[in-house]
Protein backbone atom coordinates (compact mmCIF):
# COMPACT_ATOMS: atom_id res chain seq x y z
CA UNK A 1 0.00 0.00 0.00
CA UNK A 2 2.21 2.77 -1.24
CA UNK A 3 1.28 6.39 -0.68
CA UNK A 4 2.78 8.46 -3.51
CA UNK A 5 2.22 12.18 -3.85
CA UNK A 6 -1.32 13.21 -4.82
CA UNK A 7 -2.58 9.60 -4.73
CA UNK A 8 -6.24 9.68 -5.71
CA UNK A 9 -7.17 6.59 -3.70
CA UNK A 10 -6.63 8.33 -0.35
CA UNK A 11 -9.46 10.26 1.32
CA UNK A 12 -10.07 13.63 -0.33
CA UNK A 13 -7.74 16.25 1.18
CA UNK A 14 -10.42 18.90 0.77
CA UNK A 15 -12.61 16.93 3.15
CA UNK A 16 -10.08 16.19 5.87
CA UNK A 17 -8.52 19.65 5.69
CA UNK A 18 -11.91 21.17 6.43
CA UNK A 19 -12.20 24.97 6.23
CA UNK A 20 -8.66 25.65 5.00
CA UNK A 21 -8.45 27.63 1.78
CA UNK A 22 -5.67 27.52 -0.80
CA UNK A 23 -7.04 30.22 -3.09
CA UNK A 24 -4.96 33.11 -1.74
CA UNK A 25 -1.78 34.17 -3.61
CA UNK A 26 1.37 32.27 -2.69
CA UNK A 27 4.22 33.98 -0.84
CA UNK A 28 7.85 32.91 -1.24
CA UNK A 29 10.21 32.20 1.67
CA UNK A 30 13.84 31.29 1.15
CA UNK A 31 13.89 29.06 4.24
CA UNK A 32 11.91 28.16 7.36
CA UNK A 33 13.27 31.09 9.36
CA UNK A 34 11.87 33.44 6.72
CA UNK A 35 8.60 31.49 6.74
CA UNK A 36 8.32 31.94 10.50
CA UNK A 37 8.75 35.70 10.12
CA UNK A 38 5.97 35.73 7.53
CA UNK A 39 3.60 33.79 9.79
CA UNK A 40 4.33 36.16 12.68
CA UNK A 41 3.47 39.06 10.37
CA UNK A 42 -0.01 37.59 9.85
CA UNK A 43 0.38 35.47 6.70
CA UNK A 44 -1.25 32.04 6.82
CA UNK A 45 1.39 29.32 6.49
CA UNK A 46 -0.89 27.58 3.97
CA UNK A 47 0.14 30.31 1.51
CA UNK A 48 3.90 30.11 2.04
CA UNK A 49 6.24 28.42 -0.43
CA UNK A 50 9.35 27.36 1.51
CA UNK A 51 12.36 26.70 -0.73
CA UNK A 52 14.81 25.63 2.03
CA UNK A 53 17.57 24.68 -0.42
CA UNK A 54 15.25 23.67 -3.27
CA UNK A 55 15.10 25.47 -6.59
CA UNK A 56 12.72 28.41 -5.98
CA UNK A 57 10.80 28.01 -9.25
CA UNK A 58 10.39 24.26 -8.81
CA UNK A 59 9.26 24.88 -5.24
CA UNK A 60 6.68 27.43 -6.36
CA UNK A 61 5.37 25.18 -9.15
CA UNK A 62 5.03 22.24 -6.75
CA UNK A 63 3.27 24.41 -4.16
CA UNK A 64 0.84 25.78 -6.74
CA UNK A 65 0.06 22.26 -7.93
CA UNK A 66 -0.39 21.04 -4.35
CA UNK A 67 -2.80 23.87 -3.55
CA UNK A 68 -4.75 23.15 -6.71
CA UNK A 69 -5.19 19.53 -5.61
CA UNK A 70 -6.10 20.52 -2.04
CA UNK A 71 -2.84 19.30 -0.47
CA UNK A 72 -1.48 22.72 0.45
CA UNK A 73 1.91 24.27 -0.46
CA UNK A 74 3.65 20.95 -1.14
CA UNK A 75 7.45 21.19 -1.62
CA UNK A 76 9.19 19.95 -4.76
CA UNK A 77 10.50 17.09 -2.60
CA UNK A 78 9.94 16.32 1.09
CA UNK A 79 12.18 18.44 3.29
CA UNK A 80 15.05 16.43 4.80
CA UNK A 81 15.92 17.50 8.36
CA UNK A 82 19.49 17.11 9.64
CA UNK A 83 18.26 14.80 12.42
CA UNK A 84 16.61 11.37 12.38
CA UNK A 85 13.01 12.26 13.10
CA UNK A 86 10.07 10.22 14.36
CA UNK A 87 6.49 11.52 14.28
CA UNK A 88 4.26 9.87 16.90
CA UNK A 89 0.52 9.83 16.15
CA UNK A 90 -1.80 8.46 18.85
CA UNK A 91 -5.06 7.18 17.39
CA UNK A 92 -8.49 6.13 18.57
CA UNK A 93 -11.18 5.85 15.90
CA UNK A 94 -9.35 7.81 13.20
CA UNK A 95 -10.11 5.58 10.21
CA UNK A 96 -11.26 8.54 8.11
CA UNK A 97 -8.08 10.52 8.77
CA UNK A 98 -5.14 8.16 9.19
CA UNK A 99 -4.16 7.29 5.61
CA UNK A 100 -4.58 10.93 4.59
CA UNK A 101 -2.46 12.37 7.41
CA UNK A 102 0.32 9.82 6.84
CA UNK A 103 0.36 10.65 3.14
CA UNK A 104 0.36 14.38 3.89
CA UNK A 105 3.24 14.15 6.37
CA UNK A 106 5.39 12.33 3.83
CA UNK A 107 4.62 14.95 1.21
CA UNK A 108 6.26 17.56 3.44
CA UNK A 109 8.88 15.83 5.59
CA UNK A 110 11.36 12.97 5.25
CA UNK A 111 10.68 11.13 8.51
CA UNK A 112 9.42 7.94 10.09
CA UNK A 113 5.99 7.63 11.68
CA UNK A 114 4.82 5.62 14.68
CA UNK A 115 1.08 5.09 15.07
CA UNK A 116 0.05 4.23 18.64
CA UNK A 117 -3.46 2.81 18.37
CA UNK A 118 -5.55 2.10 21.45
CA UNK A 119 -7.61 -0.74 20.02
CA UNK A 120 -9.79 1.49 17.84
CA UNK A 121 -13.08 -0.35 17.23
CA UNK A 122 -13.47 1.40 13.86
CA UNK A 123 -10.51 -0.45 12.31
CA UNK A 124 -7.89 2.32 12.49
CA UNK A 125 -5.29 -0.19 13.64
CA UNK A 126 -5.87 -2.41 10.60
CA UNK A 127 -5.48 0.59 8.28
CA UNK A 128 -2.19 1.43 10.00
CA UNK A 129 -1.02 -2.17 9.59
CA UNK A 130 -1.78 -2.03 5.88
CA UNK A 131 0.33 1.09 5.43
CA UNK A 132 3.16 -0.37 7.52
CA UNK A 133 3.18 -3.57 5.49
CA UNK A 134 3.83 -1.60 2.31
CA UNK A 135 6.14 1.10 3.70
CA UNK A 136 8.78 0.46 6.41
CA UNK A 137 8.81 4.15 7.35
CA UNK A 138 5.66 3.52 9.37
CA UNK A 139 5.34 1.19 12.34
CA UNK A 140 2.36 0.46 14.55
CA UNK A 141 2.10 -0.04 18.29
CA UNK A 142 -1.18 -1.74 19.21
CA UNK A 143 -2.53 -1.30 22.72
CA UNK A 144 -5.62 -2.78 24.35
CA UNK A 145 -8.33 -0.23 25.05
CA UNK A 146 -8.09 3.51 25.67
CA UNK A 147 -5.02 4.08 27.82
CA UNK A 148 -4.75 7.81 27.35
CA UNK A 149 -2.80 10.35 25.34
CA UNK A 150 0.02 10.65 27.85
CA UNK A 151 0.89 6.97 27.96
CA UNK A 152 0.70 6.84 24.16
CA UNK A 153 3.32 9.55 23.81
CA UNK A 154 5.50 8.06 26.55
CA UNK A 155 5.42 4.77 24.64
CA UNK A 156 6.42 6.69 21.51
CA UNK A 157 9.30 8.34 23.34
CA UNK A 158 10.60 4.93 24.40
CA UNK A 159 10.54 3.77 20.77
CA UNK A 160 12.50 6.90 19.81
CA UNK A 161 15.10 6.08 22.49
CA UNK A 162 15.43 2.46 21.42
CA UNK A 163 15.76 3.19 17.70
CA UNK A 164 18.23 6.05 17.89
CA UNK A 165 16.06 8.96 16.72
CA UNK A 166 17.28 12.49 17.42
CA UNK A 167 13.93 14.29 17.23
CA UNK A 168 10.49 13.06 18.21
CA UNK A 169 7.31 14.90 17.26
CA UNK A 170 3.80 14.94 18.67
CA UNK A 171 1.01 15.44 16.16
CA UNK A 172 -2.73 14.77 15.95
CA UNK A 173 -4.23 12.58 13.25
CA UNK A 174 -7.17 14.88 12.52
CA UNK A 175 -5.47 17.65 10.48
CA UNK A 176 -5.90 20.22 13.27
CA UNK A 177 -2.12 20.46 12.95
CA UNK A 178 -1.25 21.43 9.37
CA UNK A 179 1.26 19.02 7.80
CA UNK A 180 3.06 21.91 6.06
CA UNK A 181 3.86 23.35 9.52
CA UNK A 182 5.63 20.17 10.66
CA UNK A 183 8.91 20.86 8.80
CA UNK A 184 8.97 24.42 10.15
CA UNK A 185 8.77 23.08 13.71
CA UNK A 186 11.38 20.38 13.12
CA UNK A 187 13.86 22.71 11.42
CA UNK A 188 13.21 25.24 14.19
CA UNK A 189 14.45 22.80 16.82
CA UNK A 190 18.13 23.50 16.15
CA UNK A 191 18.30 25.97 19.05
CA UNK A 192 15.55 24.70 21.36
CA UNK A 193 15.03 21.35 23.08
CA UNK A 194 11.26 21.78 22.83
CA UNK A 195 9.45 23.50 19.97
CA UNK A 196 5.73 24.14 20.41
CA UNK A 197 3.29 24.89 17.60
CA UNK A 198 1.57 27.71 19.45
CA UNK A 199 -1.85 29.25 19.03
CA UNK A 200 -1.10 32.05 21.45
CA UNK A 201 2.00 33.80 20.16
CA UNK A 202 1.96 36.51 17.50
CA UNK A 203 0.74 35.01 14.22
CA UNK A 204 -0.99 32.04 15.86
CA UNK A 205 -4.74 31.51 16.13
CA UNK A 206 -7.57 28.99 16.36
CA UNK A 207 -10.15 28.45 13.60
CA UNK A 208 -13.55 26.82 14.00
CA UNK A 209 -13.93 27.18 17.78
CA UNK A 210 -16.92 28.82 19.45
CA UNK A 211 -16.33 31.55 22.03
CA UNK A 212 -16.78 29.16 24.97
CA UNK A 213 -13.98 26.88 23.83
CA UNK A 214 -11.75 29.86 23.08
CA UNK A 215 -12.31 31.26 26.56
CA UNK A 216 -11.72 27.85 28.18
CA UNK A 217 -8.43 27.33 26.34
CA UNK A 218 -7.13 30.86 26.86
CA UNK A 219 -8.19 30.82 30.50
CA UNK A 220 -6.49 27.47 31.12
CA UNK A 221 -3.27 28.71 29.56
CA UNK A 222 -3.33 32.00 31.48
CA UNK A 223 -3.94 30.07 34.71
CA UNK A 224 -1.10 27.66 33.97
CA UNK A 225 1.33 30.39 32.95
CA UNK A 226 0.52 32.41 36.09
CA UNK A 227 0.82 29.51 38.54
CA UNK A 228 3.91 27.86 37.03
CA UNK A 229 5.71 30.97 35.82
CA UNK A 230 7.22 29.05 32.90
CA UNK A 231 6.69 31.83 30.37
CA UNK A 232 5.05 29.40 27.92
CA UNK A 233 1.93 30.86 26.32
CA UNK A 234 0.44 27.63 24.90
CA UNK A 235 1.00 24.98 27.57
CA UNK A 236 -1.76 22.68 26.32
CA UNK A 237 -0.63 22.56 22.68
CA UNK A 238 -0.26 19.07 21.22
CA UNK A 239 1.92 19.93 18.21
CA UNK A 240 5.52 19.59 19.42
CA UNK A 241 9.09 18.62 18.62
CA UNK A 242 11.43 17.33 21.35
CA UNK A 243 15.16 16.67 21.36
CA UNK A 244 15.43 12.99 22.22
CA UNK A 245 18.54 13.61 24.33
CA UNK A 246 16.61 16.13 26.42
CA UNK A 247 13.77 13.66 26.98
CA UNK A 248 16.26 11.03 28.13
CA UNK A 249 17.31 13.33 30.96
CA UNK A 250 13.77 13.78 32.29
CA UNK A 251 12.12 11.56 34.89
CA UNK A 252 9.49 10.22 32.53
CA UNK A 253 8.59 7.49 34.99
CA UNK A 254 7.14 10.17 37.27
CA UNK A 255 4.77 11.51 34.58
CA UNK A 256 1.24 10.33 35.25
CA UNK A 257 -0.93 13.03 33.67
CA UNK A 258 -3.09 12.51 30.60
CA UNK A 259 -4.71 14.72 27.97
CA UNK A 260 -4.05 18.44 28.22
CA UNK A 261 -2.50 17.86 31.64
CA UNK A 262 0.19 15.68 30.05
CA UNK A 263 1.17 18.49 27.71
CA UNK A 264 1.33 20.94 30.61
CA UNK A 265 3.48 18.61 32.70
CA UNK A 266 5.90 17.76 29.89
CA UNK A 267 6.48 21.42 29.02
CA UNK A 268 7.07 22.27 32.67
CA UNK A 269 9.50 19.39 33.13
CA UNK A 270 11.49 20.61 30.12
CA UNK A 271 11.66 24.12 31.58
CA UNK A 272 12.59 22.87 35.06
CA UNK A 273 15.37 20.81 33.52
CA UNK A 274 16.91 24.03 32.19
CA UNK A 275 16.15 23.37 28.55
CA UNK A 276 15.15 25.93 25.95
CA UNK A 277 11.57 26.21 24.72
CA UNK A 278 10.53 27.93 21.49
CA UNK A 279 6.94 28.68 20.45
CA UNK A 280 6.28 28.97 16.72
CA UNK A 281 2.90 30.33 15.56
CA UNK A 282 0.38 28.01 13.93
CA UNK A 283 -3.21 28.26 12.77
CA UNK A 284 -5.03 25.51 14.67
CA UNK A 285 -8.15 24.32 12.83
CA UNK A 286 -10.80 22.36 14.71
CA UNK A 287 -11.16 18.78 13.51
CA UNK A 288 -13.44 18.39 10.50
CA UNK A 289 -13.84 14.59 10.58
CA UNK A 290 -14.55 12.59 13.75
CA UNK A 291 -15.20 13.67 17.33
CA UNK A 292 -12.96 15.58 19.74
CA UNK A 293 -11.37 13.49 22.51
CA UNK A 294 -11.65 16.41 24.95
CA UNK A 295 -14.00 15.83 27.91
CA UNK A 296 -14.70 17.20 31.37
CA UNK A 297 -12.49 14.66 33.13
CA UNK A 298 -9.44 15.76 31.14
CA UNK A 299 -10.18 19.44 31.85
CA UNK A 300 -10.53 18.77 35.60
CA UNK A 301 -7.28 16.82 35.64
CA UNK A 302 -5.44 19.77 34.11
CA UNK A 303 -6.98 22.22 36.59
CA UNK A 304 -6.01 20.12 39.61
CA UNK A 305 -2.54 19.19 38.37
CA UNK A 306 -1.09 22.65 37.83
CA UNK A 307 -0.59 23.75 41.47
CA UNK A 308 0.85 20.33 42.35
CA UNK A 309 3.57 20.53 39.70
CA UNK A 310 5.47 23.31 41.49
CA UNK A 311 6.34 20.95 44.31
CA UNK A 312 6.42 17.75 42.30
CA UNK A 313 8.93 18.67 39.61
CA UNK A 314 12.41 19.56 40.94
CA UNK A 315 14.63 22.04 39.22
CA UNK A 316 17.53 20.46 37.34
CA UNK A 317 20.54 21.59 35.44
CA UNK A 318 20.49 20.81 31.72
CA UNK A 319 23.07 18.25 30.68
Helicity, as a percent range = 25-40%
Low-confidence stretches: 1-16
Span from first to last CA? Answer: 43 Å
Largest sheet: 7 strands, mixed
Mean pLDDT: 89
User: What letter string, H or E per element, gives the SSE order?
Assistant: HEHEHEHEHEHEHEEHEHHEEH
Any guess at the CATH architecture of the largest domain? Alpha-Beta Complex
Radius of gyration, Cα only, in angstroms? 18 Å
The proportion of strand residues reads 15-25%
* Number of DSSP strand runs: 11
Provide the structure class: alpha/beta
- Indicate the CATH class of the largest domain: Alpha Beta
Please count the helical segments.
11
Strand order of the largest sheet: 5-4-3-6-9-7-10
| General shape | globular
CATH topology of the largest domain: Spore Coat Polysaccharide Biosynthesis Protein SpsA, Chain A
How many structural domains does the protein architecture include? 2
Could you state the CATH homologous superfamily of the largest domain?
Answer: Spore Coat Polysaccharide Biosynthesis Protein SpsA, Chain A
Structure characterization notes:
This protein has 319 residues and is α/β, with parallel strands linked by helices. The chain has 2 domains: 22-77, no CATH class; 78-312, Spore Coat Polysaccharide Biosynthesis Protein SpsA, Chain A, CATH 3.90.550.10. 38% of the residues lie in helices and 15% in strands. It is built from 11 helices and 11 strands. Strands 5-4-3-6-9-7-10 form a 7-stranded mixed sheet, sandwiched between helices. Strands 1-2 form a two-stranded parallel sheet. Helix 10 (259-272) packs parallel to helix 11 (296-312). It is globular and about 55 Å long. The termini are far apart. The model is unreliable at 1-16 (pLDDT under 50).
Amino acid sequence: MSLPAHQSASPSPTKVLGPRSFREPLVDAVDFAAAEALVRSGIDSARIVVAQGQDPQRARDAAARGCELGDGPVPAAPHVPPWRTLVVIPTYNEKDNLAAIVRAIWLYLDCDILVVDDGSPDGTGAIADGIAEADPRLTVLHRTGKQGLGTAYLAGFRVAFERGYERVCEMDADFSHAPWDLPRLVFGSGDAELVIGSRYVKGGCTIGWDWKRRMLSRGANLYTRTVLGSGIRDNTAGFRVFHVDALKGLDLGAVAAQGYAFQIEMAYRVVRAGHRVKELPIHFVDRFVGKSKMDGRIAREALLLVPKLRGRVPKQRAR
